[in-house]
């Protein structure tokens, strides 16, 4: 009996040590994916034009009066996710868009694997603080997917209380509940399963999103969304003056649309009134990003332009 | 029009009716069950509610029990912003040592889960799904098997893409058997 127990325990230990999908970067990964050394986010390549704080280091008084939008991408993505929006929004000369690269993202896979969700969120607050210090007074936040719970966590922790209040918090496909419910088992079976590969449809996607999702990062993602889900279930309020809207696509393979309902129930404006929410008919996750996709339809383009227009109208009012 | 809640109430009534007959071949049980998920993260939405079980001497000598449960988060939803969920579960349960102190069990779960969308803008959410699952568990029988504490852990899978049925459920409950 004891011998059986001992051999079963040994087998479990061995299994835990040997992952079914070990994290490996093969030649395709090395040469053409963001996971490898050849393709990094432009921020890592030293491009100063991505973040507003480095693009215009000494803004004049006219620039400081412009409306600023800090755009935050999601898990495994890069600043590419909001480039289309920046192009659209900055056609209006009264608007400036700053693209934030989440911590641990946009460089080699090893950096991503070793990062925590706290690392992911740090650059958001750094950019917000830097712009506030420079004198920008009208700053809004827009986020997609896992970028949103990172911001919500900051709101919950009152991180914006000592900064100029964000005028708007606009969320596109925010994640609180994943579509793949097995994510909740990331802590349990993740170390055994190891890496989860999710190949992008186009070379563009492979260059700008991690194709490998190390188990450690999936566990971090679940820890983050579970934390924010609980905070929402207990309820909390936005900073005084901040307005908020959530857009959520109905048929999203990554984020369950019920996430929007949980945010709507749990997050209130400072005066206690409800935020706004809208469900949109789309099969895309982060439906505002169409570049690099092969599955985008004409209806997706119409939706993207409508929502871009609405975001801009809100920001300017 | 068929409604899961109405069907569940009707089913419960039919099951409770013969209790007074006290036929020795038949064993009925009633209890309270709770369910949550295993994810090693703090804080969750507990589902809980009544369960009713039935077994018969001529069906594998009471080793196979048929159980129905209604689980809900509505009480917790009264004071927290959690979803108002309803779970209707039917479970054939195999008891390996039905009348012993330690009774390991295996069960299959078939059920229906739904939640209230609550707001007009959220009406187009796909808020219901059928699901199936399996659990392994252990029952501790007390007082000549008239009462038992039961615990089970397993896997469940929803049929709709959008749902709130997480993968690894565990349940804990207490039952009284009418022997």
Tell me what the structure shows.
The complex is a heterodimer of chains A (317) and B (179). By secondary structure, chain A is of the alpha/beta class. Chain A has helices spanning 2-17, 27-32, 52-55, 61-64, 83-89, 109-113, 117-134, 147-156, 186-193, 203-208, 215-234, 258-266, 298-316, and strands at residues 67-72, 95-100, 139-144, 168-172, 196-197, 212-213, 236-237, 243-249, 267-268, 276-280. In chain A, the strands form 3 sheets. In chain A, strands 2-1-3-4-8-10 form a 6-stranded parallel sheet, with helices on both faces. The radius of gyration of chain A is 20 Å and the shape is globular. With 179 residues, chain B is mainly β. Helix content of chain B is 9%, strand content 52%. Chain B has an 8-stranded antiparallel barrel. The longest helix of chain B has 13 residues, at 4-16. At the A-B interface, helix 9, helix 11, helix 12 and strand 10 of A face loops of B.
- CATH top level class name of chain B: Mainly Beta
Give, in spatial order, the strands making up the sheet with the most strands of chain B.
Answer: 1-2-3-4-5-6-7-8
Strand content of chain A: 5-15%
Total helical segments of chain A: 13
Report the radius of gyration of chain B as a whole number of Å. 17 Å
CATH H-level superfamily title of chain A: Alpha/Beta hydrolase fold, catalytic domain
What composes the largest sheet of chain B? 8 strands, antiparallel, barrel
Number of helices of chain B: 2
What letter string, H or E per element, gives the SSE order of chain B? Answer: HEEEHEEEEE
Biggest interface, which chains? A-B, 34 and 31 residues
What is the makeup of the main sheet of chain A?
6 strands, parallel
Give the beta-strand count of chain A. Answer: 10
